[in-house]
Design brief:
flat; 44% helix; 20% strand; alpha/beta; 131 residues; Rossmann fold
Length: 131
């Protein structure tokens, strides 16, 4: 008599768009930390290029990649993009479009102030160093 096979639940897919390679590496670290705790979430880390640091261009490209990957691989339970604030304010007209565009596509904006590299210095502090 054959018993019912155990079903492995589908992992939640999370879309994380990254402005640069350092953000992408940070996403990979987060993914490893998640997988070490449990295997119920898959972080789909996508490098958004070219963006050139322009926040609106990065969000627009992230949305294109999000839609492409969702059609190809399935829907996401969460969607986010990592953005640096160092270029915010240089083109106020373009900056005004970012929030509404992200809202229309259910994309969470994660603003890093002043930039990702500064976040890393604060987050991954050396043992005998004060910041």
């Amino acid at each position: 008599m054959r018993r019912g096979s155990a079903r492995i639940p589908q992992r939640r897919r999370v879309f994380l768009a990254c402005e640069g390679e350092s953000e992408q590496s940070y996403g990979a670290l987060l993914s490893r930390l998640i997988n070490a705790r449990h295997a119920r979430t898959h972080l789909d880390i996508v490098l958004v290029q070219p963006g050139g640091g322009d926040p609106l261009a990065i969000v627009e490209q992230a949305i294109r990649l999000l839609n492409l990957r969702a059609r190809r691989f399935g829907t996401y339970t969460s969607r986010a993009v990592l953005l640096d604030t160092d270029k915010l304010g240089l083109t106020p007209g373009r900056d005004k479009q970012i929030e509404s565009l992200a809202d229309r596509h259910s994309l969470d904006l994660i603003w890093q102030s002043p930039c990702h590299e500064a976040l890393l210095l604060r987050h991954l502090r050396a043992p005998n160093r004060t910041v």
